[in-house]
Design a protein that fits this description.
Elements: E1 4-6, E2 9-11, E3 15-20, E4 28-34, H1 37-56, H2 59-75, H3 77-88, H4 92-115, E5 119-122, E6 128-136, E7 139-143, H5 151-162, E8 166-170, H6 176-188, E9 196-198, H7 203-209, E10 216-220, H8 223-235, E11 239-243, E12 248-252, H9 258-270, E13 280-286, H10 287-301, H11 322-337, E14 341-344, E15 361-364, H12 371-374, E16 381-387, H13 390-398, E17 405-409, H14 413-422, E18 427-430, E19 450-451, H15 460-464, E20 465-473
Parallel strand pairs: 7-8, 7-10, 8-9, 10-11, 12-13, 12-17, 13-16, 15-16, 17-18
Antiparallel strand pairs: 1-2, 3-4, 5-6, 6-20, 11-19, 14-15
Helix pairs in contact: 1-7, 2-4, 2-6, 3-4, 3-6, 4-5, 9-10
Length: 474
């Protein structure tokens, strides 16, 4: 049994749960200790006790530990990628890229540990000096999803630790194995006991218990869960950062490079089995190019190699679980009932191993008010919405409760600039897939897709610290 990590020790709990390989459901990745509310409180208590000493360490000490983590992640990329692929259903190529990103994140925040700080500000009063400083918030609860199990855990853990916080991480119960390995790396890097703690379990038990006794909460997941957590956290005066879902539009204008636009749509909608918060789920295409675009996209979809995530020639692996597969089939039925045309894919697939395999799915003849265009469908599932012109395309793109990522394919500088300035989303992509982020720049969503300070880059320090202003008289 794989244990949880509390106060510098690998501990067993009474109950366990299994992690199953979605590429081969006969393969149990491991059994993991299931934390209850009391176990979570013990982890929070350990972080609370260890945090002051960690915050008092020099920035060089904290930086050196994060550097060691980054180096080990890079050195063991192939080995760690196999864990990500086996339990998460990612192709080995995608999994290796994610491990690389986690390594880059730790190296980046190793540098930020030395750079972050305050400033001197001139006072309008004579004889008064004003200085600001950054202080850790205290104990931070982190709840991470299964679709980027080591990258997202890293971009929450690394900045929280860099500025001197204590941490409790609850990873998704779908992908506990790679989180366990990440904590072994933290331990080997010399992180003091209790500073970072790992507890596994379902959100309704372990995640809910994490709210009590912490100073800040960072959550990545669904909008309904994020809203519930935020309501509870605010009632307890807990600082909150949420990165939530999307219904991301990709606008394709008449003047777009057709081949490049199809590439953007194929990548954004279907790579990683569409299981990215930034995936292109609504393809908004103007009249003149619509039919050509759909035909070219359908032809490209048929070339996608779908299979076991750890096979070298697989381009798209399975979806994460039977529950996810059932949800996708329900939305396919909803689309048909709404009058949309299923023009490609949508069938369950059989492979050499039993797994959760689904053909990438494309609907046309859809309206933006259809359920399949209003609700997040987290999988290899995209719709096409026909529009007359750019103005209608922009209005359609913005007509959603979500605002995470949005893209446009066009050769017009005028339309590209207007879209970038006026689309209501945290990310705006021009002639690029809506999915695909760098590790050193801010990430945040608009409307229901995000709440609180940005993640990643220098902006992350805003969430994981509080600013103190000091007035000093002569």
């Amino acid at each position: 049994m794989e244990r949880s990590f509390v106060n510098g020790e690998w501990v067993e709990f009474k109950e366990t749960f299994a992690s199953i390989n979605p590429s081969d459901t006969r393969d149990c990745v491991g059994n993991f200790a299931l934390a209850n509310a009391g176990d979570v409180q013990a982890a929070i208590g350990a972080a609370r006790a260890a945090q002051p000493k960690w915050a008092a360490q020099t920035t060089q000490v904290r930086s050196d530990i994060l550097q060691k983590v980054g180096f080990e992640l890079a050195a063991r990329k192939a080995e760690l990628a196999e864990i990500v692929s086996r339990e998460g259903g990612k192709t080995l190529t995608d999994a290796a890229a994610e491990v690389t990103r986690a390594s880059q994140v730790f190296h980046f925040y190793a540098g930020e540990a030395l750079r972050y700080g305050g400033e001197n500000i001139a006072s309008p009063r004579p004889g008064v000096n004003v200085q600001t400083s950054r202080e850790p918030v205290g104990v931070v609860g982190l709840i991470t999803p299964w679709n980027f199990p080591i990258a997202i855990a890293s971009w929450k853990l690394a900045p929280a630790l860099a500025v001197g916080n204590g941490v409790v991480l609850k990873p998704s119960e779908e992908t506990p194995g790679i989180a366990t390995e990440l904590f072994r790396i933290l331990e080997r890097a010399g992180l003091p006991a209790g500073v970072a703690n790992l507890v596994n379990g379902p959100g309704q038990i372990t995640g809910a218990a994490l709210i009590d006794g912490i100073d800040a909460l960072s959550f990545t997941g669904s909008v309904p869960t994020g809203r519930k957590l935020a309501q509870t956290a605010v009632g307890k005066m807990v600082k909150v950062q949420l990165e939530l879902g999307g219904k991301n539009p990709l606008v394709v204008l008449d003047d777009a490079d057709l081949s490049a636009a199809v590439d953007c749509a194929l990548n954004g909608a279907f790579y990683s089995a569409g299981q990215r918060c930034t995936a292109s789920s609504r393809l908004i295409v103007t009249d003149a190019i619509h039919d050509q675009f759909v035909e070219q996209l359908r032809l490209r979809m048929r070339t996608l190699k779908i299979g076991h995530a750890m096979k070298a020639d697989t381009l798209i692996g399975p979806v994460i679980s039977e529950r996810q597969l059932d949800m996708l089939q329900r939305y396919i039925a909803i689309g048909k009932n709404e009058g949309a045309q299923l023009v490609e894919g949508g069938r369950l697939l059989e492979r050499e191993t039993p797994g959760y395999y689904l053909e990438p799915t494309l609907f046309t003849d859809t309206r933006n008010d259809m359920q399949i265009n209003r609700e997040e469908v987290f999988g290899p599932f995209a719709t096409v919405i026909r529009v007359k012109n750019y103005d209608e395309a922009l209005a359609t793109a913005n007509d959603t409760e979500f605002g995470l990522s949005a893209g446009i394919c066009t050769t017009s500088h005028k339309y590209a600039t207007d879209f970038r300035l006026n689309v209501k989303s945290g990310l705006a992509m021009v002639n690029l897939p809506t999915a695909g982020l760098d590790y050193h720049v801010p990430l945040s969503g608009a409307k229901s897709s995000g709440y609180g300070p940005s993640e990643q880059g220098k902006s992350a320090v805003d969430f994981y610290t509080r600013t103190k202003t000091a007035y000093i008289g002569q």
